[in-house]
Amino acid sequence: MSQESKVKTTESSPPASSKARKLLPVLDPSGDYYYWWLNTMVFPVMYNLIIIVCRACFPDLQHSYLVAWLVLDYTSDLLYLLDIVVHFHTGFLDQGILVVDKGRISSRYVRTWSFLLDLASLMPTDVAYVQLGLHTPMLRLNRFLRVPRLFEAFDRTETRTAYPNAFRITKLMLYIFVVIHWNSCLYFALSRYLGFGRDAWVYPDPAQPGFERLRRQYLYSFYFSTLILTTVGDTPLPAREEEYLFMVGDFLLAVMGFATIMGSMSSVIYNMNTADAAFYPDHALVKKYMKQQHVNRRLERRVIDWYQHLQINKKMTNEVAILQHLPERLRAEVAVSVHLSTLSRVQIFQNCEASLLEELVLKLQPQTYSPGEYVCRKGDIGREMYIIREGQLAVVADDGVTQYAVLGAGLYFGEISIINIKGNMSGNRRTANIKSLGYSDLFCLSKEDLREVLSEYPQAQVVMEEKGREILLKMNKLDVNAEAAEIALQEATESRLRGLDQQLDDLQTKFARLLAELESSALKIAYRIERLEWQTREWPMPEELAEADDEGEPGEGTSQGGEGRSAQEGPPDPE
User: Fold this and answer.
1) What is the Cα–Cα distance from 374 to 389, expressed in whole angstroms?
2) What is the pLDDT of residues 206-234, one digit of tens each?
3) SS3 142
4) What single DSSP character describes residue 386?
5) What family is reported (predicted)?
6) What is the chain's Cα-based Rg?
7) Residue 90 is inside which H or E element, if any?
8) In terms of Cα–Cα distance, which of 269, 450, 469 is closest to 356?
9) Residue 97 belongs to what H/E stretch?
10) How many CB atoms are closer than 10 A to CB 305?
11) Cβ–Cβ < 8 Å for 386, 439
12) Spatial distance between the Cα atoms of 415 and 398, rounded to a whole number of angstroms
């Protein structure tokens, strides 16, 4: 093969590194893969954060499991290295759009502090093992620089979990454990530096039976640190300056930790109360109002039972307020996923446009009725329709006892009263008494909300009126003659309106012509006045005439001649 063909082959084949980069996809920082990688990085970071300091302060732990520690150390280093690779393949948002160009991603990452910390956390400090030996785990303290990755993983989990308050408490307990763990390791290291068993404050002499075991050493140190940091007391008094300094530092840390714990717990409790207040109505104000207004005991008991039912069964009556901060489109999708199946069961809404149903779903208002409570009574003005979500309602007689029918979940009533159908013999009045047998959950759709939505969908309004007319025909509650009379009256009214519109258009045309003529006349008058002003500027002023009279006879002749000339040179007729 010639040299030229070799060069061409080299140029045509892309380098292996670029192929590898193309094989690795770009991760979305808000996606699932990136989220699970962050959770994976929790383990090596927590391993280094907890085990390294423990191995450095407890020599027996380091010597007993050296091989296991070396395997875990370099496994965590491998994950650290893979994390840098993941950083180079994690996109970012620019103008709200995910950037997938790996060149831009790399240039942006290398200019951040995160890149410098990641490199520093992987510095090969283990090379010093050659001189200092394998039993010096303190050389790996630079691995702590990857702790921000741990915080990022916790933040992502808190936003994704269904129990954020429980996760916050768990995270707080983990932080407390890490602080006590570090403090117990430092206590044991200080005791070894001062001498085991030298006084009552330090760790007892390992020569004593039981105190030589590694488990006993750690548990004793952890217990001692817990007593100090929780300010419980019952600890030996320090005897040396180093011990006093250690106790003072622990007391200051305990004060700060106590304040942090109290603040975090208060925040969690406040968030829980705020969530409950957002989901369920506040009954304390209603109870106080009823007490001040001396509401009878029976009615007060019914109100309290209603609130208790909502709280126990997790029923919500203010879904609109809960979802109000979502974008309108996203709020509609959430409402559709929850309530569209219920709304689509209503006969007059079947076969309607999907966008119309989405608009109507946002207008549904959840309502809960107590046992024996009337939803509507015969003769009431119908301003809304109801869809039964859960529970049972009875159609009862005027005595409230005799039941004609029982309505269950998925049924609806009152739909005809919210649509203005011509010839409806019942008008907009309720034709039956509907009473809740137990606790019933209903969806309410008002006439005003339906009218507002249908104003944007005139074709759907015609379809719904036709369906309602068919229902009334089956129920024998549609007066065909009255409907025809209303239609004729409506057509006559529309005809008169069209005539009035035509007359109004004619008047507007005449008025426009008058305005045009008026403007033309005004322009002509203004032009004439301007010509007169220019012509009168050449006339002699009264002061000049008076001076001419004072000059005598010649002046008189001149004046007469001037007057004659003035009379002869008077302004011409503007026409």
Assistant:
1) 16
2) 888 888 899 999 999 999 999 988 877 77
3) helix
4) E
5) Belongs to the cyclic nucleotide-gated cation channel (TC 1.A.1.5) family. CNGA4 subfamily.
6) 46
7) none
8) 450
9) strand 97-99
10) 13
11) no
12) 22
